[in-house]
Fold each of these.
Amino acid sequence: MSAAEQVESIFREEHGRVLAALIGHFGDFDLAEDALQDALVEALERWKVAGIPNNPGAWLTTVARRRAIDRVRRSVALERSLPLLDSQPSYDEHDMDETQIPDERLKLMFTCCHPALAPEAQIALTLHTLGGLTTHEIARAFLVPEPTMAQRLARARAKIRNAGIPYRVPPIELLPERLDALLAVLYLIFNEGYSATGGDEPIRKELCLEAIRLCRVLVALMPESAETRGLLALMLLHDSRRLTRLDEAGELVLLGEQDRLRWDRAEIHEGIEALDEALALNDPGPYQVQAAISALHAGAPSAELTDWRQIAALYRSLAIMTPSLVVEINRAVALGMADGPQAGLSILDALGDLAQGYYPFHVVRADLFRRLGRTEEASASYRRALALCDNPAERAHLQRQLDPLTGEGSEHGKA
Amino acid sequence: MKYLLLMYADEAIGARYSKEELQAAGKVWAEFRQEIAASGVLMSSSGVAPGSSVTTVRVRNDKTMITDGPFAETHEQLGGYFLVDCKDLDEAILWAGKVPTAAYGSIEIRPLWAPGS
C-alpha cells in the first residue's frame, strides 16, 4: 500500500469515529464536518513530513476540536466585531496518541437513521458521516447528479438541527423499532450495491463492502443484538456470491447456474460464524432466518443437492415473522424443488389477485409449468412476466427461457 | 425546543359520530388533556373552527384579495393545535402519537423557527 493509499484508508476508517466524537462534543453536525475537513487537510500535509501518528484517530480528533474552536471564535468575533484571538495552538503530538476518544458512533448511527428523515436521506447521511464517502462518490453510486446529492445531505443536516432530532442511543422503549430502522438502512445500502445491474460496477461493490463494514462496527457496539449479527451473516453470505451473479456480458446468472467454485469461501465461513453467534443469542428474527437460508445455499454443492425441504421450512418461519408476496413465492420455489412442481404451484395458486401484477410470480409459475411439461401454460406465463418487467438484464434472461418453448430461438437468441 | 402539533383530520368523521361514539371520544379527549396538562410540556392549545368558516387573504400589487376557504383544499383539514416545549423531536413524536385524532387523522410536527439556536 502506498503512503497516499494508507492515509486514505485511515481517513475512511477513522471518519465515523472522529466525527461522532466531534458531534458529541460540540452538538453541531455542520461544525463537526467542517472541522474534520480542516483536520484532514492538515493531516495530509503534516503526516507527509512527520509520518503517520500512532493513534491517527486521536490525532484527527484533537486537531479537529481545535479547528472547531477556531471556527466558533472566528464567527463570534465576526458577530461582535472583536479582534481575532490568536488561534494557533501549541500541542504535543505525544499527548494526542494517548487521548482516549469515546466511541460515539452508535449515537451517530441512530441519528442518521432517525425515521423523521426520508429513507434516501438516511442512506446518504450514513454513508457520508459514518462511511466517510464523499458527496461525489455517493452521487455516483446512486446515479444522481452531485448537486442533488449535496442538497440532500445539506437538507438532512438542517433537519437534524432545526427539528431537534436527538443525538443519542434511543431509550429502551424506542430501541427495538429504531434498531430495526438502522438495520434496514444498512441492508438497503447493501442491496443497492448488490442488486443493481447498471451503473458503475466498482462503486456498486463499494456499497456492499461499506454496508458490511458498518454492520461489523454495529456488531461490536451492540454485541447482544442477534439480528445485527444475523444481518452481518446475511450480507456476508450474499456477498460471497457477488462475483458470480453476472456473466462476462453483464447478464444476470441465477443461483442455480452460478459457478459455485468461485464463491468466496472466506466470506462464507465468516458469514456462518456470524450466524452461529447470532443464533446462540436465542432471539430469532427475519435477518437470521434469511441468513440461515443463504447458508444452506452456500453449503450445497449444487442446486439439486440443496436441502430444499429445510429451506421451504425456513421460508415458512419467515412468512410468519414478515408475511409478504416475495416470501411466499420463494417458498413455492423451495417446495417445488423439495416435493415437485405441483407442490409449488399449489402455493402460488393460493396467493390471489395481488400476485398477478408482480412479474416474479409469473416467472416462477412458468418454470413450474415447464417442469411439468405444460409448455403452453409456461409460455403464457413467461409472456405475462415479460409484459410486466422492465429491467433489461432480466428481460433478456426471460426471453432466453421463452424462446426454446416457442421454437423462436433464431429471432432473439443472438441478441 | 418548541413544537406546534397541528391536528389534521377529515371533518366529516366527527360529524358522522353517534351519541355513544361522541361520548367515548369525549372521554378519550378528557384523559389526553389531563395527561398533557400534568406533563408540563403544554404551553397552549386550541381547536379551530371548521373549514367552512375559513377566509384566506393575499396581497398582490397592493391589492388585497380575499377568498372563501382554506389555502389548500385537501381532504384533511386543520382542527386545532398544541404548542409544546419538548426536549427533542422524539418527545414531540411521543406526544403527537397520543393526540386522539392521530388514530384516524394526521399530526404534523412543526418546530418553531429559532434562527441561530
Amino acid sequence: MSKKFFEKLEKKAKWVRKETLKIHGILPETRLASSLSDVEIFTSLFYGKILKFNTKNWLWEKRDRFIVSKPHGAISLYPILFDIGFISKEEFKKIGKASSFLGGIPDGRIPTFEITCGALGHGLGVGCGMALALKKKGLKSKVFVLMGDGELQAGIVWEAIMFAGHHKLNNLILIIDNNKISMLDYVKNTINLEPLEKKFNVFQWETERIDGHNIKELYYTLKKLKQSKSNHPKVLIADTIKGKGVPELENDPLCHIKSFKKEEVDEIIKKYYE
Amino acid sequence: MNNNLKTMRDVFIETLYERMKKNKSIYFVSADLGAPALDKLRQDFKNRFLNVGIAEQNLINVSAGLALEGFIVYSYGIAPFITMRGYEPIRQILSITSQIRPLNVNLIGIGTGLSYNMSGPSHHCLEDLSIMKLLPNFIVFSPSDWKLVEKFVDFSILNKMPKYLRFDSKPLPNIYDQITDAVLKRGFYELKKGKKTCLVSTGFMTHRALSIAEKINGLGLIDIFILKPIDEKLLFQHLKKYKYIITLEEGFINNGGLDSLILRIINENKSNIHLKSLGFKDKHIFNLGEREHLHKINKLGEADIIKIIKSCR
C-alpha cells in the first residue's frame, strides 16, 4: 500500500483519539485508557478494510465477524462506526443522553457488535462457535476477536484456546490488545502471562507479535494472518500502551479507572490534539 | 397411564435424530456426556455432533456462536454442571444477547432433582428451577414424562428463544397419551379435577403426586411442565377452584422454584387460597439410597404428603 494510505490511517487514528476523549468528557463512566490502547487496531480493521463489512446491512452473511470481547475498551469504536456510516450523525450526537444506545459499555444493539459482552472472557468461545459454523456453511468469512491481555487470566478463555487449536479453526483470528495493565495493577504482577507466544504455540496456534500502535505493521500482519493457508487458528499479540496518546494516563498501573472532568478533557485535547 | 418405562433423554434424542435427517441446521453439542441413543446420533451425524469436553462454559459459548450463524443447537450436559458452571455465559451471552438476536440454543440438563441418588450432593440438582426461571428470555421446560419430551422436540426447533430442558435421568412411565400443541404451549395440565385441595407438581414429583391422587378422593392434581412462559390467567382459573394448594417439587423450596411461581400467581390475583410448599429445605443431602428413601427422610414420602393433605381442612 502507498505511503499516502498509511498517512491517512495515521490521521484517522489521531482523530479517533480526539473524538474518544470528547466522548469521555460527556460520559465520564467510559474506560478511557482501555479505549486508547486499541485505536490503531480498530483503525486498521475498519479504515484499512481488513474486515469485510457492509454499512447498508451489517448482518450481511458474507461479512467478516468481529467480536469485541473487551467492550469497555471500545468507546473508540463509536467515532469510527459513525465515520464509516454504521451509526447516524443524530445517534452519534446523542451520546451521553438517556435516549442514546451508545453507552459506557457498547452492546449488541450497535451495528457490528455480534454479541453483548461485558463480563470478560466470553468473546473467544463464541468466536469459536461462529468459526466452526462458517466452515460448516462453506463461507469464506473470517472471525476476528479482540481481547484484552487481562482476560487471559480467566479459565474460560483457555477452554476456547484449546478448542480452537484442536479443531483447527484456521478462520479464527484473535487479536490481543496487550496493554499489560488490568484494573488494579500490571498484569505481570498479578498473574504473569508471558511467554505468550509459547503458550499459544503449544495449543496449536499460529502466532505473530508486533507493536500494536504501528499501523503499517498492524495492516500487513493482519492481512497476512487473514490470507494464511495454515491449518491453525491465529493470534496477533499487539503490544500496546494503555492510555496511549494521553501522557497523563500512559502506563499508570491504575489508569483503567482514571477519569477526567470535562474541563480536564478539553485541556488534554488542546495540549495534544490541536 | 401404563408401565412403558423410558428415559426422557433417549426419547428426546431419538426424536431429534429423526428431525436431523431432514433438518440440516440441527447441531448437537455435548459436554462429554452420553446416552444410549446418542451413540447412534454421533455415529450417523458426525458432521453435526460435537463434544467440547468437560468444559460447560465453553459449551455455552460455542453453542451461542453456532446459533448466531443460524444453527438450531442442542447443548447437552449434567444438569447441575450445565446450569451452574455455565451460568455466567448463560446469562451474559444467551439471556442478554437473545433479547437482540434470535438464539435457538436448547440447554438439556440431565439428572435433575435427586435423579443421581447414589452420587451425593455434587450431582443433585435442586437449584436449577429457581436460577433458570430467573433469566429473562429463557423458556423453562420441566417435563414429568417422555410423551411431553417427545412433543417438545418440534416446539424447540421452531421457537427461536434459548431454552432450558430439565430431564430426569431415570426411566419413568408415561403419564400422558397425547398432547396437543395448545396444551404444550399453555404449560400445564390438570391431570385430576378435585374439590378442596390440589397438588401442583413438576417433573419427577408428578409421579408421586399421581400415585397419591389415585388414593385420595376429591384431591386435584395439576402438572406444571413449562414454568416459563406459562398461561398464568388460565392456570389461575384452575387454581381458584381450590381452597388449599400444595406444591410439590424435587428442589429447594421458598427460593424461586415452582412454589414461588404459584405463590406469585395467587398473590397477584388477590386470592385467599392457602399455599403449602413441599420440597427440600435449605440443606444439601449427603444420604444415599433409593429416591423413595431420600424422600422419606426429608419428609417427602408418600405417607408424609398424605398426612399434610389430610390436615388441610
